[in-house]
Specification:
This protein folds into two domains: 63 residues, no CATH class; 64 residues, no CATH class. Helices cover 21% and strands 10% of the residues. The protein contains four helices and six strands. The longest helix is centred in the C-terminal third of the chain and has 10 residues. The relative contact order is 0.16.
Length: 160
C-alpha cells in the first residue's frame, strides 16, 4: 500500500528555513473562470520539456512549475501549463502594479549565501521583473538577499 505525504508551502518553508512563496489560495477541483482562462496566452508546445506534467514557463508560479525554469521556454510548454492552470496548481505571475516597491519592506529576503549573490541580478525564484537572471533555480530561494532587496526597492523586480 502506497501512502502520500502532502506538504504545504508554509510547512516546506519552515522545514527548509526559507520564507514561503506568496501564493493566492487555491480552490482544488474548481477550475478558473472562463474569462480568466481566455486571457492567458499559453503559447505552443515547441519547447524541449513538453508533456512532462510540469510547467517550464517562468511566467507562472505555483506547485506545478518546474524547479528550474529558463525564460527561453516561455510560451513553449502550453499543454502542461494550461492543464496545471486549469486544475489550480499554478497561476500567472503578479504584475509590477500588483506589487508596488513599498511592499518590499515586508519581504524576508534571506541571506547572501547563494553562488551568485552580489552580482546585481536577483536569482531568487520568488521574484520576477527585468533585473532577474533568466534561469531560476529553487536552490537560490532566499540566498541572494542584497541584490533582490535593492532591486525590489527600486521597482526593478517584484514578488511573483
Amino acid at each position: 500500500m502506497r501512502s502520500a505525504i502532502i506538504i504545504s508551502g508554509l510547512t516546506l518553508s519552515l522545514i527548509l528555513g526559507m520564507p514561503a512563496v506568496a501564493e493566492t489560495p487555491k480552490a482544488f477541483g474548481l477550475p478558473p473562470s472562463v474569462d480568466l482562462l481566455s486571457t492567458v496566452d499559453f503559447g505552443d508546445d515547441s519547447g524541449p520539456f513538453t508533456g512532462d506534467w510540469e510547467c517550464d514557463d517562468s511566467r507562472f508560479i505555483g506547485w506545478g512549475v518546474a524547479t528550474s525554469t529558463d525564460a527561453e521556454n516561455n510560451g513553449k510548454d502550453a499543454s502542461d501549463c494550461r492543464h496545471l492552470f486549469e486544475i489550480g496548481q499554478l497561476r500567472v505571475n503578479r504584475t509590477q502594479a500588483e506589487f508596488p516597491a513599498a511592499l518590499c519592506a515586508e519581504v524576508n529576503f534571506g541571506t547572501n549565501e547563494g553562488s551568485y549573490a552580489n552580482d546585481n541580478e536577483c536569482d531568487d525564484p520568488r521574484f520576477t521583473g527585468g533585473a532577474m537572471h533568466s534561469i531560476l533555480n529553487f536552490e537560490d530561494l532566499g540566498r541572494d538577499a542584497s541584490d533582490c532587496k535593492a532591486l525590489c526597492e527600486s521597482g526593478a523586480i517584484w514578488l511573483r
